[in-house]
C-alpha cells in the first residue's frame, strides 16, 4: 500500500495519469468565461467527481447559465454565478474575477477567443503566451510522454518568441512532469542551413544560445527528433546537442503555428482511434488557461483541466513525478 508521500510523487508516464495525479492534490477553483454551455458544465462536474476541482464560477448570461445548470443537474451556488451579457462584458467580468484572486484555472467557454485573449493581456506575467500540449501517441517515440508547442496561440514566431515558447514548455516539463533537464528539438524540414527555409536558421540560433535548464537542438526534422532508428540510419547531424536530443526529444518546438496545428490535429485524429492522448495548458498568465477545441474529446478536456490543476497546485506538492528523460541540471549547455 502506498504512503501519502508516494501517492504525491507517483510518476506520470502517460497523459491519462494526469487525472489521477491531479486528483491526489489540493482541488482547484475554476472560472468559466461564458459558462452557459452544458458540455462545459459536464466537463467541470467530471473534474469535480475526480477530486480535481472543488469550486466552479460561471461568468455569462444569468438566464442561459441557469438553463444549462438545470439541464446538467450540477450544483452551483447562486453566489458563484457572475452575470454579464455580451462577449466584451463577459471577458471584462472574468478578468475582474481573476484579479480578485482565489481562482486557479480559467476555462474558455461560450466566448470569443480573440476578445478574451485581448482582455487578458494586462494579466500577462510572461513575455509570450503559448499553448503547451502534453501528449503520448503510439506511433511517435514508442508512445512515451512528450510535449509540443505552439498549436494555437502564437501566430508570429520570431527568434525571441520561440525562445519564450521553449521556456514555457520547459517549465511545464520540469515543474509538472518532473523532467530534470528536458531535451528540446526545434523542428524544421532539414538539418542543414537553407536560406529559403528560415526555420533552419532559427533552429540553429536557438540551439547555440544554450540553456541551463534544457538541452536544445535544432534544426531537426521530425524523424530525427523522435526516432532512434532514423538516427541510426541517417547519422547524427552536425548541430549543437545532437547527441543529447536526436531520437530522444522530450519537447517538440514547431517553427510556426501552422506546422504545430497540423501536428496537433494529427495527434487528435489518432486519439479518436485510441492511439494517442493529449492535454493542453496556455502559459503566460497569472492562472493556467484552457482553450478547448470543438474537436477535442472529453478525455482531452478532462486531462487539460488536470494538467492546469497540477500547474496551479505545484507549489503545494512538488511535481507530479518523474515522467521523462533528461540529465541532471548543469551550469551550461555544450
Summarize the structure in words.
There is one protein chain. With 334 residues, the protein is an alpha/beta fold. The chain folds into 2 domains: 155 residues, 3-Layer(aba) Sandwich (Rossmann fold), CATH 3.40.50.10950; 130 residues, Isopropylmalate Dehydrogenase. Helices cover 41% and strands 17% of the residues. It is built from 14 helices and 11 strands. The strands form 2 sheets. Strands 8-7-9-6-5-10 form a 6-stranded mixed sheet, with helices on both faces. A 5-stranded parallel sheet has the order 3-2-1-4-11, with helices on both faces. β2, α4 and β3 form a beta-alpha-beta unit. The longest helix is centred in the middle third of the chain and has 17 residues. The N terminus and C terminus are likely disordered.
Amino acid at each position: 500500500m502506498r504512503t501519502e508521500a508516494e501517492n504525491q510523487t507517483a510518476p506520470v508516464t502517460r497523459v491519462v495519469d494526469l487525472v489521477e495525479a491531479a486528483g491526489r492534490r489540493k482541488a482547484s477553483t475554476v472560472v468559466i468565461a461564458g459558462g452557459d454551455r452544458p458540455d462545459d458544465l459536464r466537463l467541470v462536474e467530471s473534474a469535480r467527481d475526480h477530486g480535481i476541482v472543488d469550486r466552479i464560477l460561471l461568468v455569462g448570461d444569468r438566464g442561459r447559465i441557469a438553463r444549462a445548470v438545470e439541464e446538467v443537474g450540477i450544483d452551483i451556488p447562486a453566489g458563484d454565478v457572475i452575470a454579464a451579457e455580451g462577449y466584451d462584458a463577459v471577458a471584462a467580468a472574468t478578468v475582474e474575477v481573476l484579479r480578485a484572486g482565489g481562482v486557479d484555472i480559467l476555462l474558455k467557454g461560450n466566448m470569443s477567443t480573440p476578445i478574451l485573449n485581448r482582455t487578458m493581456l494586462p494579466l500577462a506575467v510572461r513575455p509570450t503566451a503559448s499553448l503547451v500540449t502534453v501528449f503520448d501517441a503510439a506511433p511517435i517515440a514508442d508512445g512515451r510522454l512528450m510535449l509540443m508547442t505552439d498549436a494555437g496561440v502564437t501566430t508570429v514566431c520570431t527568434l525571441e518568441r520561440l525562445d519564450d515558447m521553449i521556456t514555457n514548455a520547459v517549465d511545464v516539463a520540469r515543474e509538472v512532469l518532473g523532467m530534470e533537464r528536458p531535451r528540446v528539438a526545434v523542428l524544421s524540414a532539414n538539418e542543414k542551413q537553407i536560406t529559403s527555409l528560415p526555420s533552419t536558421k532559427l533552429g540553429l540560433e536557438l540551439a547555440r544560445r544554450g540553456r541551463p535548464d534544457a538541452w536544445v537542438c535544432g534544426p531537426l526534422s521530425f524523424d530525427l527528433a523522435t526516432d532512434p532508428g532514423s538516427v541510426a540510419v541517417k547519422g547524427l547531424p552536425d548541430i549543437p546537442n545532437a547527441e543529447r536530443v536526436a531520437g530522444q526529444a522530450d519537447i517538440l518546438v514547431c517553427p510556426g503555428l501552422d506546422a504545430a496545428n497540423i501536428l496537433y490535429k494529427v495527434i487528435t485524429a489518432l486519439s479518436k482511434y485510441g492511439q494517442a492522448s493529449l492535454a493542453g495548458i496556455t502559459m503566460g498568465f497569472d492562472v493556467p488557461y484552457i482553450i478547448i477545441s470543438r474537436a477535442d474529446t472529453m478525455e482531452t478536456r478532462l486531462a487539460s483541466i488536470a494538467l492546469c490543476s497540477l500547474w496551479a497546485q505545484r507549489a503545494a506538492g512538488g511535481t507530479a513525478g518523474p515522467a521523462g528523460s533528461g540529465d541532471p541540471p548543469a551550469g551550461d549547455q555544450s
